[in-house]
Design goal:
The protein is mainly β and 290 residues long. The chain has a single domain, classed as Beta-galactosidase, Chain A, domain 5. Helices cover 2% and strands 46% of the residues. It is built from one helix and 22 strands. The protein has one helix at 99-104, and strands spanning 2-6, 10-15, 21-26, 31-32, 60-63, 66-69, 82-87, 90-96, 109-118, 121-130, 136-138, 140-141, 145-147, 159-171, 185-195, 206-209, 215-220, 227-230, 236-240, 247-254, 273-275, 280-289. It is globular and about 55 Å long. 38% of the residues are buried.
């Protein structure tokens, strides 16, 4: 089942499978802002990353001496969510633990995604509730892919990324197995802009750790349309596009792929989030479209 949210500025569509956002249409700009999901390049549009972000070493982790297997980015992106609350300008999707999820992820949880429209802003909130009597460990993240070029009379290279702070930030390379290498590679040097080129993502995603900025924008040199992406509270940021595809994915993460040196112990995994029994945890990212 698809859900449509609407106000006088935006019309937004989300699938129940994966609670996946797949369309944001600006009524005033008459622009579609989301990637089309063309399977020739990448069939998804905004997968939800839970209960891990990225790749585990050998797709395996250990918890309390037992090994478990999870594929890249976890199982939520392919799961059927239940619509548990819906209004014209907001909806909540819920995924709860089952016997099947416990075989891969031995924690009892309730995972919710709330989408909410506020004028020309889309707010996306993750809620994770620990519903059992032991500490819970997890990661969560977003992966929305935005259309670039945004207008029919502009090119990919006419667009750029703008950070709200001056950055000196290296990218953390990803090896062939999807793991984070041990050292960063210089990328942004005393700048707040990063020009978009096809070559930028030839070696997989750009992965950043604890940058100064809380807002990253997609802008164009040729027109005034674009978006501002707010990700305060997410310590990791991925930026990615499939080879020669017309999009840029902005990925706020609370969690990160295993490093090449990680010992596969879940409790000590870099970026792992832990919450106490019956605790509720949340994070919100927002996008303003213009």
């Amino acid at each position: 089942m698809d859900v449509t949210l609407e106000n006088k500025h935006l019309k937004v569509k989300i699938r129940s499978k994966g609670a996946e956002l797949y369309s944001v249409y600006g009524k005033e700009t008459e622009l579609e802002y989301m990637w089309s999901g063309d399977p020739a390049f990448w069939a998804k549009t905004s997968p939800v990353l839970f209960p891990i972000v990225g790749t585990l070493k050998n797709d395996t982790y250990f918890y309390d001496g037992v090994s478990y297997s999870l594929t890249r980015h976890g199982f939520a992106r392919d799961a059927m969510f239940e619509v548990t609350d819906q209004k014209q300008d907001g909806v909540t999707f819920t995924l709860s633990s089952t016997d099947s999820t416990m075989e891969k992820f031995p924690f009892e949880f309730e995972f919710q995604l709330e989408y909410k429209l506020v004028e020309n802003l889309l707010e996306v909130t993750y809620y994770v509730k620990n519903v059992w009597d032991n500490k819970m460990y997890f990661s969560v993240g977003g992966h929305p892919a935005f259309k670039v070029p945004l207008t029919s009379n502009s090119r990919y290279e006419d667009h750029y990324l703008h950070f709200d702070n001056m950055e000196n930030a290296g990218r953390w390379p990803i090896n062939a197995d999807g793991l984070i290498k041990a050292e960063a590679v210089p990328l942004i040097e005393n700048s707040s802009t990063l020009p978009l080129t096809r070559a930028l993502f030839q070696e997989d995603a750009l992965v950043f750790k604890n940058i100064k900025s809380d807002i990253i924008s997609i802008k164009s040199q040729l027109h005034s349309h674009g978006l501002d992406f707010y990700f305060e509270g997410f310590p990791y940021l991925g930026i990615w596009a499939a080879k020669n595809a017309d999009f840029v994915s902005i990925e706020p993460w609370c969690g990160i792929a295993d490093s090449v040196t990680h010992d596969q112990q879940f409790q000590t995994k870099e970026g792992i989030v832990s919450i106490l029994p019956h605790e509720l945890w949340s994070r919100t990212w927002k996008v303003r479209f213009y």
